[in-house]
UniProtKB/TrEMBL annotation:
Source organism (scientific name): Streptomyces yanii
Record's keyword terms, sorted: DNA-binding, Transcription, Transcription regulation
Protein name: LysR substrate-binding domain-containing protein
PROSITE patterns per the UniProt record, alphabetical: HTH_LYSR
Entry annotated with the keyword Phosphoprotein: no
């Protein structure tokens, strides 16, 4: 295959534009002899004559014009590549794969994507993958996602050399009671007041552990009456007077008319949402743009909690 030397092709194009070897040399900050030598080498590489004498000047051969016609397409593609690379370096291009648990997708990731799209600057594309809190780190470690949203309770230790952890949000946990419950309007409600109630939470996983840990911190072990992991199912059962449940405030969009949400001001149960990336990846411009958007969304949501 014929070797195409980009540097030499640029010299040939400049000669076509400037008309003389001397003018070409001045434009490229080269000597005339260096210009002539480079073009002579290019002719040898391509196997065709590129210049022919015309008095004291030289002119491009038909072969040279043919070469330049194709070279212009190469130059144009290189310009596009350079522009795209510049955009990437500014965080304006590329793809960021985000793994996040269900509530975080709706409450944090989607608003962050909207924020990026509303920016005057182009932003990276975001591909979302819903994943359980613990699974997110497996996906991150395997390289299947670039950024994971999880819960601090399920995060690796801060000393794990594989990941960088960034706190995003402290999410208060409120208790969901059915409308008409005897404690729905009770002043100063505490978790301990609900020790004898049937509870609804997941059979395993982070939400089961968060619920049991919060109740145990309040001095009792919750009786699990029903098992569910989705907020729609949990709140539907609460509404039907089948039990009570702890609900993260971040899941407020799922609330139902037949459910009363009570803030547990004395207990203040909460969960901590964190973002994680592979060590060093936070410095990548596209990932940094998405992280910044997530932090902005998290900060705004935290203000609504207070």
């Amino acid at each position: 295959m014929t070797e195409w030397d980009i540097k030499k092709l640029r010299i040939l194009r400049t000669l076509s534009e400037r008309g003389t070897v001397t003018a070409t040399a001045e434009a490229l900050l080269m000597t005339p002899s260096a210009v002539s030598q480079q073009l002579s080498n290019l002719a040898k590489q391509l196997g065709v004559p590129l210049l022919e004498a015309q008095g004291r000047r030289v002119r491009l051969t038909d072969a040279a014009h043919l070469v330049l016609r194709h070279a212009e397409a190469v130059f144009a593609q290189l310009e596009r590549a350079e522009a795209e690379l510049t955009g990437y370096l500014r965080g304006e291009a590329g793809e960021v794969r985000v793994g996040a648990f269900s509530t975080a997708v709706a409450a944090l990731v989607v608003p962050a994507v909207r924020l990026l799209r509303a920016d005057d600057r182009p932003g990276p594309s975001v591909r979302v993958r819903e994943a359980e809190a613990a699974e997110a780190y497996e996906l991150l470690s395997a390289g299947d996602v670039d950024l994971a949203l999880s819960l601090a309770a399920h995060a690796p230790t801060a000393h794990d050399p594989r990941f960088t952890l960034l706190p995003l949000l402290t999410d208060p946990l409120d208790v969901a009671l059915p409308t008409g419950h005897r404690l729905a309007d009770a002043p100063g409600l505490r978790l301990a007041d609900l020790a004898a109630e049937p509870w609804i939470f997941g059979g395993s996983g982070p939400w089961s552990e968060i619920t049991t840990a919060a109740c145990e911190a309040a001095g009792f072990v919750p009786e699990q009456a029903h098992s569910a992991s989705g907020w729609t199912a949990i709140l539907a059962m609460v509404e039907a007077h089948m039990g009570v449940a702890l609900i993260p405030r971040m899941a407020s969009a799922e609330r139902r008319k037949g459910v009363v949400m009570r803030v547990l001001e004395a207990d203040l149960p909460r969960r901590h949402v964190v973002a994680a990336v592979r060590q060093g990846a936070e410095e990548g411009p596209a990932v940094a743009r998405v992280l910044a958007a997530l932090e902005q969304v998290s900060s705004a949501r935290a203000k609504t909690f207070s």
